[in-house]
């Protein structure tokens, strides 16, 4: 009983701190993610020390990553990919490849990381927050503009690259546990094949639930599909996030995509917020202060990524200030970046 009470007290502190700091951030125009991280810092071991690092907190936060990847899969469309193919495989490929290669070389040569770990670090820096970028563009009614389409093209390629980085992470984890790369690829192929076989029944079920108009059924279906796919992935030794992304793509091709997306959004936002609170509780402020140069390096890398995006945007020169501001959204790091960087640290 004492353990349950302690968990409830910790949860109450987390919610209160997050509410206060996210409210402040929203009032001054700062993304809510910053408020969640600050909440973790303030009440975590590096701050007031009101709560300790919790494995349960990290586990709950990982649910947010799974739901976020599922939501990204819902947004991903093969039709959209074909329409923007030139920009996706042109500008998007340049941004991801140049950033990944540059950061990987620095991580390998300067910090003496293993090659695979360095590549994961490079991939983490190359990724952007798709959800945040789309929110910025939608808020400015710029999704249909020329620069909005360019930003979406870069984000689409990053989503494709994210799948490759997740496969690399799984291959590295499998090698550490005695599995080969071929085994991981075979398992991934089997899981994707199983999901596509289940595509028809899943879409029929989602359409049936959407027609009933029962929000509770829609919520349960969305959570069952998103989290249920992770069971299949885990049994095959793969990343739950990868399975969630693939499942989201399958559901996204059906008519019930919007119903599923609308019902899962509150859960996704809540658990992603917990994920960032968990990151905040793990930030050692004294170490960050002693090694402040690493933050400067990260800013430099992000500046380089911004330069690549803008250099590929032929309409950027002489464009309006809002156009330039919308282009800045492509430098924002995403939760997947944190996942990849932590994974590289565990194996590097």
TrEMBL record:
The chain crosses the membrane at residues 6-26, 33-51, 57-76, 88-111, 117-138, 150-168, 180-199, 220-250, 270-288. GO terms for biological process: proton transmembrane transport. One of its GO terms (molecular function) is antiporter activity. Residues 17-288 form the Cation/H+ exchanger transmembrane domain. It comes from the Bacteria. It is a multi-pass membrane protein. Its main location: membrane. Belongs to the monovalent cation:proton antiporter 2 (CPA2) transporter (TC 2.A.37) family. Keywords: Membrane, Transmembrane, Transmembrane helix, Transport. It is found in: Membrane. PANTHER family: SODIUM/HYDROGEN EXCHANGER FAMILY/TRKA DOMAIN PROTEIN, SODIUM_GLUTAMATE SYMPORTER. The keyword Hydrolase does not apply. GO terms for cellular component: membrane. This is Sodium/hydrogen exchanger family protein. Pfam families: Na_H_Exchanger. The keyword Transmembrane helix applies.
């Amino acid at each position: 009983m004492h353990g349950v009470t302690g968990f409830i007290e910790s949860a109450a502190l987390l919610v209160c701190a997050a509410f206060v700091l996210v409210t402040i951030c929203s009032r001054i125009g700062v993304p809510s993610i910053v408020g969640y991280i600050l909440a973790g810092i303030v009440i975590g071991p590096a701050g007031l020390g009101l709560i300790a690092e919790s494995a349960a907190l990290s586990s709950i936060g990982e649910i947010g990553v799974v739901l976020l990847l599922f939501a990204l899969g819902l947004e991903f469309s093969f039709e959209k990919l074909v329409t923007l193919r030139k920009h996706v495989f042109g500008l998007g490929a340049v941004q991801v490849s140049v950033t990944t290669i540059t950061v990987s070389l620095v991580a390998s040569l300067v910090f003496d990381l293993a090659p695979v770990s360095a590549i994961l670090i490079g991939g983490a820096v190359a990724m952007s927050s798709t959800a945040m970028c789309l929110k910025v563009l939608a808020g400015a009614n710029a999704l249909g503009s020329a620069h909005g389409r360019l930003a979406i093209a870069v984000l689409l390629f990053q989503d494709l690259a994210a799948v490759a980085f997740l496969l690399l992470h799984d291959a590295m984890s499998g090698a550490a546990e005695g599995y080969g790369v071929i085994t991981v690829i075979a398992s991934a192929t089997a899981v994707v094949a199983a999901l596509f076989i289940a595509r028809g029944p899943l879409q029929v079920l989602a359409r049936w639930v959407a027609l009933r108009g029962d929000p509770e059924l829609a919520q349960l279906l969305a959570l069952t599909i998103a989290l249920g796919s992770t069971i299949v992935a885990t049994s095959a030794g793969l990343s739950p996030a990868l399975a969630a992304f693939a499942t989201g793509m399958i559901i996204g091709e059906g008519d019930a995509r919007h119903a599923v997306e609308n019902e899962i959004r509150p859960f996704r936002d809540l658990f992603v917020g917990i994920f960032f609170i968990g990151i905040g509780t793990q930030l050692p402020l004294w170490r960050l202060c002693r090694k402040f140069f690493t933050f400067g390096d990260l800013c430099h890398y992000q500046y380089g990524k911004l330069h690549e995006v803008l250099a590929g945007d032929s309409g950027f020169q002489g464009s309006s200030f809002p156009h330039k501001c919308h282009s800045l959204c492509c430098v924002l790091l995403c939760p997947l970046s944190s996942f990849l960087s932590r994974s590289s640290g565990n194996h590097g």
